[in-house]
Design a protein that fits this description.
Helices cover 67% and strands 0% of the residues. It is an all-alpha fold. The chain has one domain. Helix 1 packs antiparallel against helix 2. The longest helix is centred in the N-terminal third of the chain and has 32 residues.
């Protein structure tokens, strides 16, 4: 069983990783959308920035890196939900 101090550290670090992941995703996506030529943001789909252009690697790598950084967040979410259920069984 984790101590309370280690639990708070794990949850806080997961929150920081989630924020960093969101920033990486938004930054990579915006840069790619601005650099891709002949991309109409109204008629083309969002994922069109991820293929058939010179900057597809930037969009795809931002998705991969943000996805990898989000992996530790899911056990933290499960842990928080589990602790809420034990503290207040009528929570849900």
């Amino acid at each position: 069983m984790l101590t309370e101090k280690r639990t708070k550290l794990f949850i806080n670090s997961s929150l920081i990783l989630a924020i960093i992941s969101i920033v990486i995703f938004i930054t990579g996506t915006l840069i790619t959308m601005l650099l891709v030529e002949n991309h109409d943001f109204i008629y083309d789909v969002f994922s069109a920035t991820g293929h058939d252009n010179d900057y597809a690697w930037l969009f795809n790598s931002s998705l991969i890196v943000s996805g990898i950084l989000m992996i530790p967040c899911f056990p933290a979410i499960y842990f928080v939900m589990k602790m809420r259920m034990f503290q207040n069984p009528n929570y849900f």
